[in-house]
Amino acid sequence: MKERITAFLGRMLSVVLGIVITFTVQGILDRKRDKRAVQTALELVRTELSSNLEDITLLTEYFQQEQISARYLSAHKKDLAKCPADSVNYHRSMVEADVSVAFSHDALELLKMSSLFPKIQNNDLSMKVIHAYDACELIASNVSRHVSNRDAAPEGAVDWLLSRPPFTWVSDPTDIQEAVEAIDAFLLEK
After folding, report:
1. pLDDT of residue 168
2. Is residue 24 assigned to a domain?
3. Which domain holds residue 93?
4. How far is CA 8 from the centre of its chain?
5. How far is CA 120 from CA 8, 14, 117, in A?
6. Would you say residue 13 lies in a domain?
7. 3-class DSSP state of 50
8. Mean confidence (pLDDT) of the chain
9. CA proximity to 103, closest of 60, 62, 134, 148
């Protein structure tokens, strides 16, 4: 009887140890897989935010040119017929352009839908990513509002543009830049 109990306990111990080892190894593998998945998703987010940042740079350049064009048209208001037609057409098209922007947020949606967002261990990084996408949406809505107000101005687009401060808020997308830098730092961690 003692031998049977000892044999049973030996087999039971083997089974229990096997189960513990299996779950431990599986847990380690799951954590590694999750870490790789988070890194891959954050690389996509970084690429997307970098693209959005490039779009903001182009918007900044456009709005600077819009101001230059408004000043040109205002300065030559009385003698536009004497100015080269291609210059006048260029500056008018800059002032009257229908500008819109739609920033991409697909990588963020993928990160949320894949349930990886909570697995980002760095809460500061998570908040920076959220703030960066919020900044993109704010910029997009401000661009839309600017174009609507410019086009609806009763005094005309040129006079309205000259009566406003230059469109400078686009040139300072710090939330987006900080998020890109934070993602870079996270991805470089081992």
Report:
1. 67
2. no
3. 34-188
4. 60
5. 45, 36, 6
6. no
7. helix
8. 86
9. 134
Nearest to 186 by CA among 45, 10, 85: 45
Which tokens belong to 48? 């997307």
pLDDT of residue 135: 85
Report pLDDT digits (tens) over 37-92.
888 988 899 899 889 888 888 888 898 899 999 999 999 888 888 889 999 899 99
Is there a domain that residue 167 lies in? yes
**Token digits of residue 60:** 């900044």
Residue 116 pLDDT exceeds 90: no
d(Cα 131, Cα 123) in Å, to the nearest integer?
12
Does residue 20 lie within any of the structural domains? no
Are 86 and 152 within 8 A, CB to CB? no
Which amino acid belongs to residue 28? I
Inter-axis angle of helices 2-75 and 174-188, nearest 10:
150
pTM: 0.77
The 10 Å Cβ neighbour count of residue 126 is 17
In this structure, what token pair is assigned to residue 86? 């291609």
Please tell me the total count of domains within the chain: 1
To 10 degrees, what angle do helices 106-113 and 123-152 make? 140
Contact residues for 105 (Cβ-Cβ < 8 A; gap 6+): 48, 133, 136, 137
Nearest Cα to 127, choosing from 61, 72, 178, 73?
A: 178
